[in-house]
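Hi U.,

Before I forget, here's the chain from the pilot set. I'm dumping it here mostly so it's searchable later in email.
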Amino acid sequence: MTRILLPFDLPIYDRINSNHPLLVSLTDQRYPGIGFVRAAAAGPAAYAAEAQRAAAALGERLSAGLGSIPRNDDALRQFIASRDLDSQARIDPTADLAFFHTAPMLLGQLPYLLHTESLTTLFHPMLVEGDCTGIELRQQYVYWFVRGMLEAPACRGIFTNLKSTQAQIDRVLASEAISRKTRHVPAGPYFTTDEQAKVATAVERRREKPDIDILFTNSWHQRTPSFVLRGGLDLLLAFFEIEPQFPNLRLTLRSGLPEILDGTDIAARVRGHPKIRLLPDRLSDEEMLGLLLRADIFFLDAASVHSISILRAMYCGLACVVSDVPGYEEYLTPDQTAIVVPGRAAAIYDEDPGSGWVRGDFRPMFRPDGTRLARIAAALQMLCANREARLALGANARKHVMAHNSFEGWKRGFEAVLQDALAG
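Structure:
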Protein backbone atom coordinates (compact mmCIF):
# COMPACT_ATOMS: atom_id res chain seq x y z
CA MET A 1 0.00 0.00 0.00
CA THR A 2 1.35 3.41 -1.01
CA ARG A 3 1.19 5.83 1.93
CA ILE A 4 0.28 9.49 1.32
CA LEU A 5 0.90 11.77 4.27
CA LEU A 6 -1.75 14.43 5.03
CA PRO A 7 -0.20 17.11 7.26
CA PHE A 8 -3.33 19.27 7.58
CA ASP A 9 -3.63 18.79 11.37
CA LEU A 10 -0.17 20.21 12.07
CA PRO A 11 0.23 23.63 13.74
CA ILE A 12 1.73 25.02 10.52
CA TYR A 13 -1.79 24.85 9.07
CA ASP A 14 -3.52 26.73 11.88
CA ARG A 15 -3.84 29.89 9.79
CA ILE A 16 -4.17 28.46 6.29
CA ASN A 17 -7.45 26.59 6.24
CA SER A 18 -6.24 23.35 7.81
CA ASN A 19 -8.56 20.56 6.60
CA HIS A 20 -10.03 22.51 3.69
CA PRO A 21 -13.33 20.98 2.45
CA LEU A 22 -12.27 21.31 -1.20
CA LEU A 23 -9.41 18.86 -0.54
CA VAL A 24 -10.93 16.78 2.23
CA SER A 25 -13.60 15.77 -0.28
CA LEU A 26 -10.78 14.27 -2.38
CA THR A 27 -8.83 12.56 0.37
CA ASP A 28 -11.98 10.98 1.84
CA GLN A 29 -12.32 8.92 -1.36
CA ARG A 30 -10.76 5.55 -2.10
CA TYR A 31 -8.03 5.03 -4.68
CA PRO A 32 -6.57 1.64 -5.69
CA GLY A 33 -3.38 0.85 -3.78
CA ILE A 34 -3.29 4.20 -1.93
CA GLY A 35 -3.83 4.97 1.75
CA PHE A 36 -3.87 8.41 3.38
CA VAL A 37 -2.19 8.76 6.77
CA ARG A 38 -2.12 11.64 9.24
CA ALA A 39 0.91 13.25 10.81
CA ALA A 40 1.96 11.89 14.20
CA ALA A 41 0.37 13.32 17.34
CA ALA A 42 3.85 14.05 18.68
CA GLY A 43 7.27 14.02 17.09
CA PRO A 44 9.48 11.03 17.90
CA ALA A 45 13.16 11.87 18.24
CA ALA A 46 13.96 10.13 14.95
CA TYR A 47 11.56 12.45 13.11
CA ALA A 48 13.03 15.52 14.80
CA ALA A 49 16.53 14.57 13.70
CA GLU A 50 15.34 14.05 10.14
CA ALA A 51 13.65 17.46 10.19
CA GLN A 52 16.88 19.09 11.37
CA ARG A 53 18.85 17.41 8.59
CA ALA A 54 16.26 18.44 6.01
CA ALA A 55 16.32 22.04 7.26
CA ALA A 56 20.09 22.22 6.88
CA ALA A 57 20.01 20.74 3.37
CA LEU A 58 17.19 23.05 2.31
CA GLY A 59 19.07 26.06 3.62
CA GLU A 60 22.09 25.22 1.52
CA ARG A 61 19.99 24.75 -1.59
CA LEU A 62 17.96 27.93 -1.24
CA SER A 63 20.89 30.19 -0.35
CA ALA A 64 22.42 29.31 -3.73
CA GLY A 65 19.45 30.42 -5.85
CA LEU A 66 18.55 34.02 -5.08
CA GLY A 67 18.49 35.54 -8.55
CA SER A 68 19.73 39.12 -8.46
CA ILE A 69 19.43 39.77 -4.72
CA PRO A 70 22.28 39.11 -2.25
CA ARG A 71 22.41 36.23 0.21
CA ASN A 72 20.68 36.96 3.52
CA ASP A 73 21.11 34.31 6.20
CA ASP A 74 18.65 35.98 8.56
CA ALA A 75 15.92 35.88 5.91
CA LEU A 76 16.69 32.23 5.22
CA ARG A 77 16.55 31.31 8.91
CA GLN A 78 13.23 33.13 9.23
CA PHE A 79 11.82 31.26 6.24
CA ILE A 80 12.88 27.85 7.57
CA ALA A 81 11.60 28.72 11.06
CA SER A 82 8.21 29.54 9.51
CA ARG A 83 7.91 25.83 8.66
CA ASP A 84 7.97 25.15 12.44
CA LEU A 85 10.42 22.42 13.42
CA ASP A 86 7.98 21.03 16.00
CA SER A 87 5.47 20.46 13.19
CA GLN A 88 8.14 19.00 10.94
CA ALA A 89 9.16 16.57 13.70
CA ARG A 90 5.72 14.95 13.36
CA ILE A 91 6.16 14.22 9.63
CA ASP A 92 6.97 10.57 9.08
CA PRO A 93 9.83 10.49 6.55
CA THR A 94 9.04 6.88 5.62
CA ALA A 95 5.78 7.81 3.86
CA ASP A 96 5.87 7.69 0.06
CA LEU A 97 4.58 11.20 -0.61
CA ALA A 98 3.17 14.20 1.23
CA PHE A 99 0.14 16.13 0.00
CA PHE A 100 0.19 19.82 0.94
CA HIS A 101 -2.17 22.63 0.12
CA THR A 102 -1.77 26.42 -0.08
CA ALA A 103 2.01 26.61 0.39
CA PRO A 104 5.07 24.30 0.29
CA MET A 105 5.34 23.86 4.07
CA LEU A 106 7.70 20.88 4.02
CA LEU A 107 11.46 21.09 4.61
CA GLY A 108 12.23 18.28 2.20
CA GLN A 109 11.88 15.10 4.24
CA LEU A 110 9.50 13.70 1.62
CA PRO A 111 8.63 14.24 -2.01
CA TYR A 112 5.35 16.12 -2.14
CA LEU A 113 2.35 17.16 -4.22
CA LEU A 114 1.01 20.68 -3.72
CA HIS A 115 -2.41 22.19 -4.35
CA THR A 116 -2.87 25.95 -4.40
CA GLU A 117 -5.78 28.19 -5.30
CA SER A 118 -3.87 31.48 -5.20
CA LEU A 119 -0.33 32.39 -6.20
CA THR A 120 0.03 34.76 -3.24
CA THR A 121 -0.60 32.08 -0.64
CA LEU A 122 2.44 30.16 -1.92
CA PHE A 123 4.50 32.74 -0.03
CA HIS A 124 2.78 32.18 3.32
CA PRO A 125 3.47 33.40 5.98
CA MET A 126 5.86 36.11 4.73
CA LEU A 127 3.21 37.52 2.42
CA VAL A 128 -0.44 37.69 3.45
CA GLU A 129 -3.14 37.84 0.79
CA GLY A 130 -4.81 41.23 0.89
CA ASP A 131 -1.88 42.95 2.63
CA CYS A 132 0.52 43.36 -0.27
CA THR A 133 0.33 47.08 -1.13
CA GLY A 134 3.37 48.26 -3.07
CA ILE A 135 5.36 45.05 -2.67
CA GLU A 136 7.81 44.25 -5.47
CA LEU A 137 7.70 40.49 -5.46
CA ARG A 138 11.09 39.71 -6.99
CA GLN A 139 12.79 41.85 -4.36
CA GLN A 140 11.39 39.61 -1.61
CA TYR A 141 13.54 36.74 -0.35
CA VAL A 142 10.48 34.55 0.05
CA TYR A 143 9.91 34.73 -3.72
CA TRP A 144 13.29 33.14 -4.42
CA PHE A 145 13.00 30.64 -1.58
CA VAL A 146 9.62 29.38 -2.77
CA ARG A 147 10.76 29.34 -6.39
CA GLY A 148 13.76 27.23 -5.36
CA MET A 149 11.56 24.81 -3.42
CA LEU A 150 9.15 24.33 -6.30
CA GLU A 151 11.97 23.81 -8.80
CA ALA A 152 13.60 21.15 -6.62
CA PRO A 153 13.01 17.46 -7.38
CA ALA A 154 11.19 16.99 -4.07
CA CYS A 155 8.26 18.94 -5.52
CA ARG A 156 6.65 16.27 -7.69
CA GLY A 157 3.71 18.31 -8.91
CA ILE A 158 1.50 21.37 -8.42
CA PHE A 159 -2.16 21.57 -9.29
CA THR A 160 -4.72 24.34 -9.06
CA ASN A 161 -8.46 24.55 -9.62
CA LEU A 162 -8.11 27.96 -11.33
CA LYS A 163 -6.74 28.55 -14.83
CA SER A 164 -5.82 32.09 -13.82
CA THR A 165 -3.59 30.78 -11.03
CA GLN A 166 -1.82 28.43 -13.42
CA ALA A 167 -1.21 31.41 -15.73
CA GLN A 168 0.10 33.45 -12.78
CA ILE A 169 2.48 30.65 -11.78
CA ASP A 170 3.82 30.45 -15.33
CA ARG A 171 4.26 34.20 -15.71
CA VAL A 172 5.35 35.27 -12.24
CA LEU A 173 7.62 32.38 -11.24
CA ALA A 174 9.05 32.32 -14.79
CA SER A 175 10.47 28.82 -14.41
CA GLU A 176 10.20 26.17 -17.10
CA ALA A 177 10.75 23.47 -14.47
CA ILE A 178 7.82 24.71 -12.37
CA SER A 179 5.55 25.20 -15.38
CA ARG A 180 6.14 21.60 -16.44
CA LYS A 181 4.97 20.42 -13.01
CA THR A 182 1.83 22.59 -12.88
CA ARG A 183 -1.65 21.51 -13.96
CA HIS A 184 -5.13 22.94 -13.93
CA VAL A 185 -7.81 20.57 -12.64
CA PRO A 186 -11.38 21.97 -12.56
CA ALA A 187 -12.89 21.55 -9.10
CA GLY A 188 -16.32 20.14 -8.36
CA PRO A 189 -18.47 20.03 -5.21
CA TYR A 190 -19.03 16.71 -3.46
CA PHE A 191 -22.53 15.50 -2.59
CA THR A 192 -23.53 11.99 -1.64
CA THR A 193 -26.26 10.23 -3.62
CA ASP A 194 -28.72 10.95 -0.83
CA GLU A 195 -27.71 14.62 -0.74
CA GLN A 196 -28.07 14.91 -4.52
CA ALA A 197 -31.66 13.68 -4.22
CA LYS A 198 -32.36 16.22 -1.46
CA VAL A 199 -30.98 19.02 -3.64
CA ALA A 200 -33.15 18.00 -6.59
CA THR A 201 -36.25 17.98 -4.35
CA ALA A 202 -35.40 21.39 -2.87
CA VAL A 203 -34.95 22.88 -6.34
CA GLU A 204 -38.47 21.83 -7.29
CA ARG A 205 -40.03 23.04 -4.04
CA ARG A 206 -38.40 26.44 -4.44
CA ARG A 207 -40.95 27.27 -7.15
CA GLU A 208 -43.77 27.35 -4.58
CA LYS A 209 -41.80 28.66 -1.63
CA PRO A 210 -43.56 31.67 -0.04
CA ASP A 211 -40.56 33.26 1.72
CA ILE A 212 -37.36 34.59 0.15
CA ASP A 213 -34.21 33.60 2.01
CA ILE A 214 -30.81 35.21 1.47
CA LEU A 215 -27.90 33.10 2.74
CA PHE A 216 -24.47 34.43 3.67
CA THR A 217 -21.79 32.03 4.92
CA ASN A 218 -18.46 32.75 6.50
CA SER A 219 -15.44 30.60 5.75
CA TRP A 220 -15.78 27.11 7.22
CA HIS A 221 -13.31 28.00 10.03
CA GLN A 222 -15.71 30.82 11.09
CA ARG A 223 -13.05 33.46 11.78
CA THR A 224 -15.04 36.64 12.13
CA PRO A 225 -12.75 38.98 10.11
CA SER A 226 -13.69 36.89 7.07
CA PHE A 227 -17.25 38.16 7.53
CA VAL A 228 -16.14 41.49 6.06
CA LEU A 229 -13.83 39.97 3.46
CA ARG A 230 -16.71 37.90 2.07
CA GLY A 231 -18.94 40.98 1.73
CA GLY A 232 -20.99 40.61 4.90
CA LEU A 233 -20.83 44.25 5.97
CA ASP A 234 -22.07 45.51 2.60
CA LEU A 235 -24.81 42.86 2.62
CA LEU A 236 -26.14 44.05 5.98
CA LEU A 237 -26.32 47.67 4.86
CA ALA A 238 -28.06 46.71 1.61
CA PHE A 239 -30.47 44.39 3.43
CA PHE A 240 -31.49 47.14 5.85
CA GLU A 241 -32.32 49.31 2.85
CA ILE A 242 -34.47 46.86 0.88
CA GLU A 243 -36.02 44.74 3.64
CA PRO A 244 -39.03 47.03 4.27
CA GLN A 245 -40.16 46.46 0.67
CA PHE A 246 -40.42 42.67 1.07
CA PRO A 247 -42.38 41.36 4.08
CA ASN A 248 -41.45 37.78 3.13
CA LEU A 249 -37.68 38.43 2.98
CA ARG A 250 -35.31 36.73 5.45
CA LEU A 251 -31.53 36.80 5.92
CA THR A 252 -29.43 33.98 7.40
CA LEU A 253 -25.87 34.75 8.48
CA ARG A 254 -23.84 31.61 9.11
CA SER A 255 -21.21 33.60 10.93
CA GLY A 256 -20.42 35.53 14.03
CA LEU A 257 -20.16 39.30 13.76
CA PRO A 258 -16.67 40.79 13.50
CA GLU A 259 -15.15 42.72 16.40
CA ILE A 260 -15.23 45.96 14.41
CA LEU A 261 -19.02 45.90 14.81
CA ASP A 262 -18.94 45.47 18.60
CA GLY A 263 -21.03 48.19 20.23
CA THR A 264 -22.27 49.60 16.92
CA ASP A 265 -25.80 50.29 15.79
CA ILE A 266 -25.32 47.72 13.02
CA ALA A 267 -24.63 44.92 15.51
CA ALA A 268 -27.60 45.94 17.65
CA ARG A 269 -29.90 45.96 14.62
CA VAL A 270 -28.71 42.53 13.51
CA ARG A 271 -29.20 40.93 16.91
CA GLY A 272 -32.63 42.47 17.35
CA HIS A 273 -33.91 42.08 13.81
CA PRO A 274 -36.86 39.69 13.44
CA LYS A 275 -35.87 38.79 9.89
CA ILE A 276 -32.17 38.05 10.53
CA ARG A 277 -30.94 34.72 11.83
CA LEU A 278 -27.37 34.76 13.19
CA LEU A 279 -25.59 31.39 13.42
CA PRO A 280 -22.15 31.99 14.97
CA ASP A 281 -21.27 28.36 15.77
CA ARG A 282 -19.79 25.80 13.42
CA LEU A 283 -22.35 23.63 11.72
CA SER A 284 -22.23 20.02 10.62
CA ASP A 285 -22.18 19.19 6.92
CA GLU A 286 -25.83 18.13 7.20
CA GLU A 287 -26.82 21.44 8.83
CA MET A 288 -24.88 23.41 6.24
CA LEU A 289 -26.63 21.57 3.43
CA GLY A 290 -29.94 22.36 5.09
CA LEU A 291 -29.19 26.09 4.90
CA LEU A 292 -28.40 25.82 1.19
CA LEU A 293 -31.61 23.90 0.52
CA ARG A 294 -33.77 26.47 2.33
CA ALA A 295 -32.12 29.49 0.69
CA ASP A 296 -33.09 31.26 -2.54
CA ILE A 297 -30.22 33.74 -2.91
CA PHE A 298 -26.56 33.17 -2.05
CA PHE A 299 -24.45 36.28 -1.40
CA LEU A 300 -20.65 36.18 -1.88
CA ASP A 301 -19.47 39.66 -2.88
CA ALA A 302 -16.02 38.74 -1.64
CA ALA A 303 -12.48 40.10 -1.86
CA SER A 304 -11.18 36.84 -3.33
CA VAL A 305 -12.54 33.70 -4.93
CA HIS A 306 -14.08 31.02 -2.69
CA SER A 307 -14.47 28.03 -4.96
CA ILE A 308 -16.17 25.50 -2.74
CA SER A 309 -18.75 28.03 -1.52
CA ILE A 310 -19.80 29.23 -4.97
CA LEU A 311 -19.79 25.76 -6.54
CA ARG A 312 -21.97 24.29 -3.79
CA ALA A 313 -24.41 27.18 -3.99
CA MET A 314 -24.64 26.93 -7.78
CA TYR A 315 -25.15 23.16 -7.63
CA CYS A 316 -28.02 23.75 -5.20
CA GLY A 317 -29.68 26.04 -7.75
CA LEU A 318 -29.33 29.30 -5.80
CA ALA A 319 -29.37 32.72 -7.43
CA CYS A 320 -25.84 33.89 -6.64
CA VAL A 321 -24.57 37.44 -6.18
CA VAL A 322 -20.78 37.67 -6.39
CA SER A 323 -17.98 40.18 -6.95
CA ASP A 324 -15.86 40.64 -10.06
CA VAL A 325 -12.56 39.63 -8.44
CA PRO A 326 -10.31 37.20 -10.37
CA GLY A 327 -11.44 33.58 -10.44
CA TYR A 328 -15.23 33.80 -10.40
CA GLU A 329 -15.30 34.28 -14.17
CA GLU A 330 -14.09 30.68 -14.47
CA TYR A 331 -17.24 29.40 -12.77
CA LEU A 332 -20.02 31.66 -13.99
CA THR A 333 -21.31 34.00 -16.68
CA PRO A 334 -22.63 37.42 -15.60
CA ASP A 335 -26.43 37.74 -15.75
CA GLN A 336 -26.78 34.15 -16.96
CA THR A 337 -25.56 32.03 -14.07
CA ALA A 338 -25.01 34.74 -11.42
CA ILE A 339 -25.25 38.46 -10.76
CA VAL A 340 -21.75 39.97 -10.80
CA VAL A 341 -21.38 43.28 -8.97
CA PRO A 342 -18.56 45.27 -10.62
CA GLY A 343 -15.93 47.34 -8.84
CA ARG A 344 -14.25 45.05 -6.33
CA ALA A 345 -11.38 44.06 -8.60
CA ALA A 346 -10.48 47.66 -9.46
CA ALA A 347 -10.63 48.72 -5.81
CA ILE A 348 -8.56 45.84 -4.45
CA TYR A 349 -6.10 44.60 -7.05
CA ASP A 350 -3.21 46.01 -9.05
CA GLU A 351 -0.27 44.48 -10.91
CA ASP A 352 3.31 44.40 -9.74
CA PRO A 353 5.10 45.77 -12.85
CA GLY A 354 8.28 43.84 -12.17
CA SER A 355 6.74 40.36 -12.09
CA GLY A 356 3.16 40.56 -13.35
CA TRP A 357 1.91 39.38 -9.96
CA VAL A 358 -1.65 40.49 -9.20
CA ARG A 359 -1.36 41.82 -5.65
CA GLY A 360 -4.25 42.65 -3.36
CA ASP A 361 -5.14 45.25 -0.75
CA PHE A 362 -8.25 44.24 1.22
CA ARG A 363 -8.60 47.48 3.19
CA PRO A 364 -11.37 48.85 0.92
CA MET A 365 -13.58 45.98 2.11
CA PHE A 366 -13.76 47.68 5.52
CA ARG A 367 -14.90 51.01 4.04
CA PRO A 368 -18.38 50.62 2.53
CA ASP A 369 -18.86 52.68 -0.62
CA GLY A 370 -22.20 54.31 -1.43
CA THR A 371 -22.05 53.55 -5.13
CA ARG A 372 -21.32 49.90 -4.49
CA LEU A 373 -24.03 49.61 -1.84
CA ALA A 374 -26.56 50.98 -4.36
CA ARG A 375 -25.48 48.33 -6.88
CA ILE A 376 -25.81 45.54 -4.33
CA ALA A 377 -29.20 46.77 -3.15
CA ALA A 378 -30.43 46.99 -6.75
CA ALA A 379 -29.27 43.44 -7.51
CA LEU A 380 -30.95 42.01 -4.41
CA GLN A 381 -34.08 44.06 -5.00
CA MET A 382 -34.40 42.70 -8.54
CA LEU A 383 -33.96 39.10 -7.39
CA CYS A 384 -36.48 39.51 -4.57
CA ALA A 385 -39.07 41.16 -6.81
CA ASN A 386 -38.76 38.76 -9.74
CA ARG A 387 -39.26 35.10 -8.84
CA GLU A 388 -38.85 33.91 -12.45
CA ALA A 389 -35.55 35.73 -12.89
CA ARG A 390 -34.35 34.31 -9.56
CA LEU A 391 -35.31 30.77 -10.47
CA ALA A 392 -33.85 31.03 -13.99
CA LEU A 393 -30.53 32.27 -12.63
CA GLY A 394 -30.38 29.39 -10.15
CA ALA A 395 -31.39 26.80 -12.77
CA ASN A 396 -28.71 28.01 -15.18
CA ALA A 397 -26.11 27.93 -12.41
CA ARG A 398 -27.02 24.36 -11.49
CA LYS A 399 -26.84 23.18 -15.11
CA HIS A 400 -23.48 24.85 -15.60
CA VAL A 401 -21.86 23.26 -12.56
CA MET A 402 -23.24 19.82 -13.38
CA ALA A 403 -21.84 20.10 -16.91
CA HIS A 404 -18.47 21.71 -16.20
CA ASN A 405 -17.55 21.16 -12.55
CA SER A 406 -18.47 17.62 -11.64
CA PHE A 407 -16.93 16.03 -8.58
CA GLU A 408 -16.10 12.99 -10.71
CA GLY A 409 -13.90 15.16 -12.92
CA TRP A 410 -12.24 16.76 -9.89
CA LYS A 411 -11.51 13.32 -8.44
CA ARG A 412 -10.15 11.92 -11.73
CA GLY A 413 -7.87 14.93 -12.15
CA PHE A 414 -6.55 14.58 -8.61
CA GLU A 415 -5.89 10.88 -9.08
CA ALA A 416 -3.96 11.62 -12.29
CA VAL A 417 -1.68 14.23 -10.69
CA LEU A 418 -1.24 11.96 -7.66
CA GLN A 419 -0.12 9.04 -9.82
CA ASP A 420 2.25 11.29 -11.77
CA ALA A 421 3.74 12.56 -8.51
CA LEU A 422 4.25 9.02 -7.26
CA ALA A 423 5.92 8.11 -10.52
CA GLY A 424 8.30 11.03 -10.10
